[in-house]
């Protein structure tokens, strides 16, 4: 079978689509997505924040390098805003003060932070109870719109001549004559010299189908609930508020509030569903830290955050399989780092300038796992 494109991307989440969009000006790119609609899995189920409490130095550097894109998006992203300003508040009890100091020092190189006392914390988030007495605020947080972001990437991909094929679950992969040959469950065949594995929680499974050694990726489930705010709450001004430890975050969401107990429950790759225990835990922690009573849960969902063993993202060619490129392990930061990661993929595959001064190709390479 003849080659159908230069680069074949498996996975139409934010990782695959942003990389494909960045590549499409330089190469002929096809994206194969198993589901009928894009964003059905992790990319459509997130808390949609850009903030610096996530991850470590490397993740923060990728986030900072992505900021310019979100602040001033390219034309293909102009139709619907891909983000809106939302302050970020990390709050702490007296006994958590040392942890807040440490986080403040970790984030300070990446964002302009304001230190808040009890009055400042309650002024920014009046829903917190009296135990919250310390805080750090980043007034420049961004609440992202993942669907606008995904659609912008699809527009950019198509404008440059690339294609997104949905309902195309890859079932077999083989290398023959210097080309990856891929067949979908429906029997459609594709062939390209370079295969980008951006299958999110399924990336290890896709590698195994291709005869490539898996990385040991770990999908972890996270749960979100939505519920009514107390009568009279001024939702518009509320921040994305997070405990200094990984216990709880909450924020305004479509006229209500959402909250997550920041669970990380190991899972197989699947259509993740919320579990009763984590739903109850979200409500419990919300009532423990705020003045809000969660009388009725309006909606709930869960999604998978998939981590590499060192919790850093992976971008680079597999050592043992020519043309097999990993783009995986976006964990809980895949939206906010997607512009920088897409630029990195383009740099590694088509030679565009390396976009993040503080991050090296070696740090992201799958070769680091041996
Ligand atoms: C509750 C929650 C909160 C989060 N909060 C944030 C946040 O505040 N900020 C942030 O930046 N990130 C956040 N994230 C993380 C972010 O959502 C992920 O890092 C990101 O969506 C991962 O993107 P992806 O493209 O790798 O995965 P996905 O979106 O899951 O895309 C992978 C795609 O591959 C497809 N696929 C799999 N196998 C095949 C196959 N065989 N053939 C074809 N296609 C296949 C799947 O159908 C899927 O659509 C959160 C995630 C969750 C769950």
How would the blueprint of this fold be written?
Layout: E1 7-10, H1 14-23, E2 29-32, E3 49-50, H2 57-71, E4 83-85, E5 88-92, H3 97-107, E6 114-116, H4 118-124, E7 134-138, E8 142-144, H5 146-159, E9 163-165, E10 170-176, E11 179-184, E12 189-192, E13 194-197, H6 203-209, E14 218-227, E15 240-243, E16 249-253, E17 256-260, E18 265-266, H7 276-289, E19 297-307, E20 314-317, E21 324-328, H8 338-350, H9 361-364
Parallel strand pairs: 1-2, 1-13, 2-9, 5-15, 13-21
Antiparallel strand pairs: 3-8, 4-8, 5-7, 6-7, 10-11, 11-12, 14-17, 14-18, 14-19, 15-16, 16-17, 20-21
Bound molecules: flavin-adenine dinucleotide.
Descriptive overview:
The protein is elongated, with a radius of gyration of 21 Å. The chain is built from nine helices and 21 strands. It starts with 6 loop residues before the first strand and ends in a 6-residue tail after the last helix. It is α+β, with helices and mostly antiparallel strands and 370 residues long. Strands 5, 6, 7, 14, 15, 16, 17, 18 and 19 form a nine-stranded mixed sheet that branches. Strands 9-2-1-13-21-20 form a six-stranded mixed sheet, with helices on both faces. A three-stranded antiparallel sheet has the order 3-8-4. The model has no long low-confidence stretch (mean pLDDT 97). Flavin-adenine dinucleotide (FAD) binds next to helix 1, strand 14 and strand 19.
Mean pLDDT: 97
Share in β-strands: 25-35%
Number of strands: 21
Order of helices and strands: EHEEHEEHEHEEHEEEEEHEEEEEHEEEHH
Weakly predicted, low-confidence segments = none
Structural category is alpha+beta
Structural Rg: 21 Å
Query: Major sheet: size, sense and barrel closure?
Result: 9 strands, mixed
* Helix content, binned percent: 25-40%
Ligand names: flavin-adenine dinucleotide
What shape does the CA trace take?
elongated
Number of helices: 9
Distance between the termini: 34 Å
